[in-house]
Amino acid sequence: MFVSEALSVYCTSKVYGLYFGNPKRLVTGAKLKDVFGHDQPTFIMISYQNVLQLCWLKILLSPEPVEWSRVQLWRKKCNIKVQGWWARGERSLSEDETIHPFTVEASEDEIQDLYRRIDQTRYTEPLEDGRFHYGFNSVYLRKVVSYWRNQFDWNKQVKVLNKYPHFKTKIEGLDIHFIRVRPQYREGQRVLPLMLVHGWPGSFFEFYKILPLLTETQDGLAFEVICPSIPGYGYSEAPHKQGFNSMDAARVFLKLMERLGFTEFYLQGGDWGSLITTNMAQMKPECVRGLHLNMLAVTRGGLGMLLSLIIGPYLPFLVGFTREDVRRLFPYFEKNVYEILKETGYLHIQATKPDTAGCGVNDSPVGLAAYILEKFSSWTDKQNRDLEDGGLERNYSLDDLLTNVMIYWTTGTIVSSMRFYKENLKSNPEKRIDSRTGIYVPMGFAAFPQELLHCPQAWARWRYKDIRSYTYMSSGGHFAAFEEPKLLADDFVQFVKKVECKKL
User: Fold this and answer.
1) pTM score, two decimals?
2) Could you tell me which residue ranges the Epoxide hydrolase N-terminal domain spans (predicted)?
3) Known catalytic residue: 490?
4) Fewest C-beta in 10 Å: which of 26, 198, 314, 367?
5) pLDDT tens profile 352-385
6) Does residue 421 carry a catalytic annotation?
7) What does 323-379 look like in DSSP terms, one character per residue?
8) Where are the beta strands (DSSP E) in 142-252?
9) In the annotation, is 271 catalytic?
């Protein structure tokens, strides 16, 4: 089912007339809370032919001036999926909604096949003094592979993965994998549901260090945490049809939370998780108590962004910049444009021809490890490119890094994970309806200093309309939960406290 020629209309509590496309469902004299059962901003998808009636109703029925700046209309025809089917073939008449326990398993045949492929690896001689400027240095790669072949214990790491309860359930034709971690019951504690969403080239395993920090009671507050695998990543089934993007993932995860019985919950994400959780907050703001992110990319700044880039280095207070914003942003071309160009070659491949490059990394475990681990080097700290070992073991253990690689290798999901870029970037992202829709749920942001892009709070406010916390983190990069779990957990908890205090 689709909604064609759709509009997205933001309704404030000052709007007293709402038109749903059916004259019999005209609501007058009712505030937003009376209509929806809550007073959070809500998006209503209506057909284009009814926009005039809606506008006239706003004018005639509102006893106060209508906030026209709050009304966002798109005349362009668009299709908004309210349902999807990603399994092979036609949609079935019914879907099994049972939630099944799942266990990660290791097989000896799998391990022996891995060893055989590792033993047949053909290495490339690195350039003199190349370090990590050309990608993963093959001298250090030999060391990593030697550890993988001779010391890394996959059976032991599988036990680590099974430390938390795993489940699977069918949603829109796909087996969706997730872990669910409940806090130990303590008298007087308050438990809030939370979904954590990973990105690429990470996995649900990124959150294993932060889970104990979130499920332990702090000031009477603890979280019941749901960590799903994005479809096509790890143990979640990959879509079998074209078109599965972040909005589809968001819809699937909203259905997952509904199936688990949660009507309100918090969201946290970085990388793709940032976009997916943002889409969830746009689709069902009434369900999202708060949205916390550790990566932001604002692309629709327009003239405001241009002016801030011109004025910001000299008079930052005029454009809402802090001294820390200036330090992280400027010189803009060097710290942003040039650095992004150096770090996004992978993106252009995966957003255009993912299957071509995927043939190699899906067949070679060493190629896969180099492809993934290089990101954990340069995205953790760009200065790691100057080091012979890429600084990998400064922030992570080889066991943790290789466990993440093994999740991709044993499931064969590197290609399907790369396709997610193609599906999200095959058309102009700025023309997607989600990029033109504001986010009005309470939002918190942890700005880590080594993140690929820095987004000042002044820019974030263009899209996120209710920022409750914005923190300049002292250290850390792109993989915040993996690298700095304590810092991220503390910032998230402080954000939740601010939201809950205001709600009370």
Assistant:
1) 0.85
2) 99-207
3) no
4) 314
5) 999 999 999 999 999 999 999 999 999 999 999 9
6) yes
7) HHHHHHH-SHIIIIIIHHHHH-HHHHHHTT-HHHHHHHHHH-HHHHHHHHHHHHHHT
8) 166-171, 174-181, 190-197, 221-228
9) yes
